[in-house]
Amino acid sequence: MKTIALIDYGSGNLHSAARALRVAANNAKKTREIRITADPSAIAYADRIVLPGVGHFADCAANLRRHDGLVEALKEAVLERGVPFFGICVGQQLLATRGLEDGETAGLDWIPGDVDRIQPGGSLAVPHMGWNALAFQQKHPILDRLGADPHVYFTHSYAYRNPSAADIAATTEYGETIIAAVARDNMFATQFHPEKSQRVGLQILSNFVLWDPK
Question: What is the pTM of this model?
Fold first, then answer.
């Protein structure tokens, strides 16, 4: 059976993400084992990889690097073998060059850019919590069949800054333009939570299950 490795490094909403991935695979008419793991050997055999993330950038980066061999296994799978990868919230942010929350912390630098505090201005609250519309910046298979005016659920205070325009897949508006999704090669990642985004989120995850970036 093909497997989706859901990375357990102490910084993710694992059970909600696992449930959503099971439903998404079923909707896509695919049988997949959702394996919650930080084991490099399990990652080496995974057919797809999902990196969730909740909390502060520095804490999540430290937790990721604290697991022996985990970053190396992810790099080998994603960057060298081209395994389809999906990052969620801080799991998206960790792809950046650096995070600027609680000082400067090195990210994975897989999709270059910074992660900095959002500045919506006016009476808009930070953190940004709630439903916002997606504006597509590129045609991507993971963004197919979302319907007209798709809305997704956000909860964050920081977001991607200054990636290459070619790496921006979707944006949203919250007092400023916020990068909602980034994509490069076999990598796709969202600032929002697809596992909390009901029909649209499940469609995005189903599209990921079916995605063949090669």
Answer: 0.97
